[in-house]
Amino acid sequence: MAKNKKAAKPHRPVRDFVKKQGKKVNLSEFLAQLDLLGLKIIEVVADGNCFFRSLADQLEGNEEEHTKYRSMVVQYIRNHREDFEPFIEDEMLFDDYCKSMEEDGTWAGHMELQAASLVIRTNICIHQFNSPRWYIQNFSSHDVNMIHLSYHHGEHYNSVRLKEDPCEGPAKPISIKVDANIARASSSSKATTSDSKKSSQIKTVMDATRCYNTNKIRQVLQEVAGDVDAAIEYLIAEKQSANSTCAEESSLSDTNENTDDGNCSPRNSQRPTHENELKDKKPARGKELQHLSVKQRKASAPIIIKSKAGSKGREKKGKKQNKRRDQPEKAPSVTSGPLPDMGALCI
């Protein structure tokens, strides 16, 4: 009988933010802080379901609907396991975590706040006493509303409404000037981050492929859905194919140029070079010098030496020019300017 007896489950602590020793919430001061914004606190039951109760009050005006929102949030986490599993602490298994979060009275954490914002498609503003507001900004403020909660000493949530809100049904929209600024900053940050990422991808592909046509790289990246490796492979394969085609055409052209009525000797060999001209002229020059005296021959010798030096200089210069022609053109160097500022991220 003793073996079949199940061990009792540990008792979960009940959130009672008012009674907790050393952390009594001074609502009067907090209310005064919110009063400056034209807001008030709607208290919900502190039973471990306070976050979901606050959601239910904001969305329906009835905190007793909290179980529905708990179920929606947990189901969203299950459906997007790859996004949430890395953030589970204490080496807890994902399925065990979801099962525990489904139970009534389990406290919600940062993961549940993010999941709630995504599943109900709304941004969340969390007010804290004597602290800056905390925004969970997953959507443009033009598309969705923002719900407002208050957070007390890191252990309890309440709902926040306009002072003139009769609390009948969903909370009335709250407009705070800072919210608009945060929304603009978030949109600007996302746009800047996107542009910076694209610039980085283009530079990576450019360095790997030595292709400096940014429009072409941008088009290829778009076709492969931003996959940098796939874009690099595509451009390299295209370049190799183009080089192979050019080599075949060049070989065919050389064959046609070097063949003349069945004679396979290169045409260049038939061209008289400057050196050959000098050789042809040397015997004639020798005949001219035969009737001259020794002194006259010596006097004319510098002319021959100068002529040789000049021909060698021209030959060297011609070789250098040929070398320059044969060398492949260097690719223009890529000067990457300063990356655009990434900006601040809204949670």
Automatic annotation (TrEMBL):
Which portions of the chain have biased composition (kind: Basic and acidic residues)?
A: 272-290
Record-annotated OTU domain positions: 39-163
- Compositional bias, Polar residues, is annotated for 243-271
A single GO molecular-function term is: cysteine-type deubiquitinase activity
Region Disordered: what ranges? Answer: 183-202, 243-347
Bias class Low complexity marks the residues at: 185-194
PROSITE patterns according to UniProt = OTU
Looking up SUPFAM superfamilies in the UniProt record yields: Cysteine proteinases (SSF54001), UBA-like (SSF46934)
**Compositional bias per record (Basic residues), positions renumbered to this chain:** 309-323
What GO terms describe the biological role, i.e. biological process, of this protein?
A: protein deubiquitination
Q: InterPro entries from the entry?
A: OTU_dom (IPR003323), Papain-like_cys_pep_sf (IPR038765), Peptidase_C85-like (IPR050704), UBA-like_sf (IPR009060)
Origin superkingdom: Eukaryota
Concerning its family, UniProt says: Belongs to the peptidase C85 family.
Designated name of the protein: OTU domain-containing protein
Per the UniProt entry, what species is this protein from, by scientific name? Rhynchospora breviuscula
User: The organism's lineage?
Assistant: Eukaryota, Viridiplantae, Streptophyta, Embryophyta, Tracheophyta
